[in-house]
Prior knowledge:
With 339 residues, the protein is mainly α. The protein folds into two domains: 2-125, DNA polymerase, domain 1, CATH 1.10.150; 134-334, Orthogonal Bundle (hpI Integrase, Chain A). It is 59% helix and 4% strand. Helix 14 packs across helix 15. The protein is globular, with a radius of gyration of 25 Å.
Amino acid sequence: METLICQHYESIRADKFKDVCTLENLYPAWIEYKSVHVCATTVIRIKKDWRKYYENAAIVKKPIRKITKLEIDTWVHKMIREHEMNAHKYGNFSVILRQMLEFAVDSEIIEKNLFLDVRINRRRVLVPEVKKPDHTQVFTKSEENMLIERAWKAFNKRENYKQWYVPLAVIFLFYTGLRLGEISALKFEDITGNSMLVNRLVRFPTGEIVDHTKGTYGSRAVPLIPQAAEIIDLIRTHRQEKGLDIDGYIFCPNEKPVSTYNAIERALKKYCRDLGIEERSPHKERKTFTSALISNGVSINTARQLAGHVDERTTLSNYCYDRSEDDEKLAQITYALTS
Length: 339
């Protein structure tokens, strides 16, 4: 009898909670649930978007069972206009509301996710996405040459004794287009002749090593041009001379790839500052690599494969930029129009 009474009152308590439960109340449970299904960087982005868009909004403080479709529709459109959202920003913003309401359905707080009935006329209300200027996304050939020279100088002078090979990693990225997490987790066993197999990465900020690359592309083989192969041979020889393991992570002497991940980005930005070049991230080296392939006649399918993209539209839309200096562009345009 005592058990039955306790179960009865627990049921009443649960029902009362469901009646008053808000999105604000539900958020901690949802973000914990979400964190076991996505990588740490996605969770960081979601938390940032929650603080930006949701944290102080009236709708998250109202009992979920009392929120109407009209309220959702009105608030969502208001947020789109207030924050001038394009498709990318809207996707990051809306996924929180959509999935939290779905979580509320699974938790039996509500019977239906009303957000699924809200219609957004994307062409009319979302800000068109404009491709970013070339100079913000890639390095010109002269900038690349300057950075490579600066990185070689840093390596030869051993400017950072704790991360000997970081300057070489900065150079290697220009030659291979690897993601930062991929180069940090690259091992000597991945190198076969003049090719390397890219099949793992380090996740930031957790430092977790996973045996796959980003997304659904899977492993990929990337050829090593002579300059890239020279770097691998140099590191192998240097490690042997220093009595270091030559079976571990290539660019990481302390066997902590996440520290290399951070050090590469810091080094590249320092070299940019030293040279008076606009600071850009290692990801822009990846875009530089892909843009160089396409502009020099490599097929879009090969460029896509080397970048590890599933869809060539990703390659063309986000990794194809003009690396020419202004005078080069003028010369090219003049030649095209007068020849």
